[in-house]
Amino acid sequence: MAARLVSRMLRRVLRSSVRSCSSGARVTQPRRSEPSQSAAEELSGRRRFLREHAAPFSAFLTDSFGRRHSYLRISLTEKCNLRCQYCMPEEGVPLTPKANLLTSEEILTLARLFVKEGVDKIRLTGGEPLIRPDVVDIVAQLSRLEGLRTIGVTTNGINLARLLPQLQRAGLNAINISLDTLVPAKFEFIVRRKGFHKVMEGIHKAIELGYSPVKVNCVVMRGLNEDELLDFVALTEGLPLDVRFIEYMPFDGNKWNFKKMVSYKEMLDTLRQQWPELEKLPEEESSTAKTFKIPGFQGQVSFITSMSEHFCGTCNRLRITADGNLKVCLFGNSEVSLRDHLRAGDSEEELLRVIGAAVGRKKQRHAGMFNISQMKNRPMVLIDSPPALPIVSSWDPLSIQGLRHRVSFSNQEATLWKGCWVPQAPPLTQRQLGCGSPQRHYSSHSDSDTSPKCLSPTSPAPATRSGWRPTSDTLTHVDSEGRAVMVDVGGKPDTERVAVASAVVLLGPVAFKLIQENRLKKGDALVVAQLAGIQAAKLTSQLIPLCHQVALSNVQVRLELDSARHAVAIQASCWARGPTGVEMEALTSAAVAALTLYDMCKAVSRDIVLGEIKLISKTGGQRGDFHRT
Q: Quick check: 379 and 253 in contact, CB under 8 A?
């Protein structure tokens, strides 16, 4: 339903944009770097002649298994305007000094050489290629290369709407846009920046300018976005999109885990349950995608099956990194520096010998997925534009799907996230306080009360215990010799377990006002803290050494603003059925949500106090229930 509304909104905007563009648009002379119409027609004629009189394919670009490499991907930069969790290792990526990166002249020299030898498709990647200042000029220069049929770009979409008209005039004729979620809050969580609307504007602009299909790359990860498969596919009903689901691939620093990978066949089964009429389209030669179409839909769906069903036998791709290294296989760790040979003054013949030797060493196929995960290789950001390789371990769908937007001003309705093309209710509520100022409340509880009680700002009250057994006089996580051990819960019965914990963050008036008005430069602090709390609950066993891993059935995190104390009150609730309690999960959730608020606000004030982290209640287990009053 959400995706259908997205599709309808995009079409409506497109129709209005086309009408406005067709009436009174100012005619401009083509820039020096942009081919005129007659030049474009002449270029098209030359390409047609070359296709009809094609010379034998270059031996330098043909490997020992007979694969002809006619597709070159060139990384223009290692930099990016997002800070995606899925792209860089946690410890960060050391960027190559500018002097060691390829200049535009070196890029064009190498492109000219490869096209001369038979490459007919070049895709510009990154980092984020569209942040390179001379990207339009590079595309214009590439478009003049005889024999080059396709110039494409893979982008995160942030700058696409602004640059695409210039890029199209320069000769860009293929676009891939990375988009891993249709939920704005999840997008911001993944990339650590705002920008969902800009990506959607870029998709809209590409459709408006006639690109068809517009390819949308989505890496699918279990626990993060596999629940959005149907929503993505529904977009193709009324839009000329090729939604490309990519199996999660291992790269250096992205903490690949087989359990996170959703295979092509599993994704296909999910789609067939909704659309049994889904039909497979013929595969193009050297295609990496298995493409399907739903009869009557305008767009199509593809699967990139690098892990479960490799396509090495027909691979025709080569890659040049931003620092000038040639990679003959995305998953291989062998590289050769073309930059060094260029700067040493090597002739074309000498460069071709180096290229030919590298291509000749290309293996018949890449290693299996488990071996790849153990190999040393560059992080994706230093190889190619990352489609998406999330390192977050999971995503609780309740944190998005269960959110309810509740607004009550006196005779006034607030419309948040205006212009958002995904009709997803934002996780914020503004409530009328006695002082008349709006209060923002954030809850992941789908059925939470419309007038939730604030956590009490008073001093801690004594706890009450229902059937609570006396606490043990010995430490359960220490053996008779004083060594740390895990408690054996194998013999305990499975029971329903619920725990609630709380925390308070005293922000001070300045930070409190910024959060209240949602004006922090880092983004919506309540959104990010709520997501962090949910993530922390599910990662407790990795953070607290002797905690058991618990299969949580539900996690809910609520945050409320307390204007009297300039504070945020946090309440975290966890549910599970098992042999051990979930109070540590609830406490970890509340504590990490509080730490996240500190991190979001520390630039504004260092005088932030985290406190009152405590267990509110727990039920289930041999020791009975506990309730703090």
A: yes
Q: Cα separations (Å) of 29 from 26, 34, 37, 57?
A: 10, 10, 11, 39
Angle subtended by helix axes 583-601 and 525-538, to nearest 10: 150
The yes-or-no verdict on residue 196 having pLDDT over 90 is yes
| Catalytic pick among 524, 599, 607, 625 | 599
Element (H, E) at 526: helix 525-538
DSSP string over 445-466: -TT--SSPPPPP-SPPPPEEEE
Average pLDDT for 259-268: 87
Residue 394 has what pLDDT? 43
567 phi/psi in degrees, rounded to 5: -135, 165
Which residues fall within 8 angstroms of residue 391, CB to CB, at 6 or more apart?
85, 86, 90, 253, 254, 255
Q: Is 396 among the catalytic positions?
A: no
Would strands 174-178 and 214-220 be described as parallel, antiparallel, or unpaired?
A: parallel
Determine the angle formed by the axes of helices 196-208 and 184-191, rounding to 10 degrees.
110
Higher pLDDT, 56 or 540: 540
Task: Quote the percentage of the chain above a pLDDT of 70.
Answer: 68
- CA separation for the pair 616, 629 (Å, rounded): 8
Pairing mode, strands 552-562 and 567-578: antiparallel
| pLDDT higher than 90, residue 523 | no
Cis amide prior to 345 (ω within 30 degrees): no
CA 290 to chain centre: 22
pLDDT in tens, 403-454: 323 222 223 222 222 333 333 333 322 322 233 334 444 554 433 333 333 3
- Name the DSSP letter for residue 198: H
Predicted TM-score (pTM) of this structure: 0.56
Amino acid 39: pLDDT = 46
Say what the alpha-carbon torsion angle 57, 61, 62, 63 is, to the nearest 10 degrees.
180
Indicate whether 103 pLDDT > 50: yes
For residues 73 and 179, what is the distance between their CA atoms, to the nearest angstrom?
20
Which amino acid, residue 70?
A: S
Alpha helices in 316-374 (DSSP H): 338-343, 348-360, 369-374
